[in-house]
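User:
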Amino acid sequence: MALFDLPLPELRAYRSASSEPEDFDTFWTKTLEEARSHDLDARFERVPTGLSTVDVHDVTFAGFGGHPVKGWLVLPAGADEPLPLVVEFLGYGGGRGLPHTHLLWASAGFAHFVMDTRGQGSGWSAGSTPDPVGSAPSYPGFLTRGIEDPHEYYYRRVFTDAVRAIEAARSHPLTDASRTAAVGASQGGGITLAAAGLVPDLAAVAPDVPFLCDFPRATTLTDREPYREVGHYLKTHRGRSEQAARTLAYFDGVHFAARGRAPALFSVAMEDQTCPPSTVFAAFNAYAHEDKQIEVYDFNDHEGGGPFQEAARLRWLPQRLTT
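Assistant: Predicted structure:
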């Protein structure tokens, strides 16, 4: 696929038409207050993996509604003092998988917490966390689950889980809460932006080719899943476009980006039809912190920078997390 979105100079100036709800901050403050009424109950169980360079803990903590959410905590073997912490969120359809697939950040000397995404983990990587909350009829996938009401929307639970995951990871004695970063690609990048807007004291964030940004443009520009799920839903449920747009506005990465208080390293791929470049730039251009950068991959689709972006993060992140 050749370039299909705006030219790069226009992307650098592009602003989303997404309308922020007047009660956006109140909505999220109340949501997190409700979640924190449940004991975090973070439990870390050391598990054998056959790996000699890392120590791995199977983690369970209370997320949205007090529901148990799983994760991995991967530490450099023999760590005996608090380490800078990288909390990672996963792409659409995937789960936490197996520990040996998460070696990068521990190999670089960081504590690495991987959050399982509730209800996912049956696509490209296995998950361990169910979503016990149902919804009204929704198109297969996750983007329309509970779309009738922001209080019932699927990503209200996921974004709350993300905040609680950071709190759980920070509760471990071998993590340094003052040196915490959030990272993720695609859906993980969108969750990272939510964390950037909801957790005020992160040291850094790195959203790669982020999903869940600029819904008004994304849902009308690309025919590719997952954004197309919204179109499929509205094709059947005629007349609900306004309500769907209202719900999605509470979860738009553009509005979380406007509250970002940590240095940020974004990435974008110019041929990305899954998360179109303009939707990524909408979040980047709205991002509030002045220390922000974006890596542009001219001829890549949704794979983005892949290992090249991992290398970029390995160069960039230690400058924000080490003392």
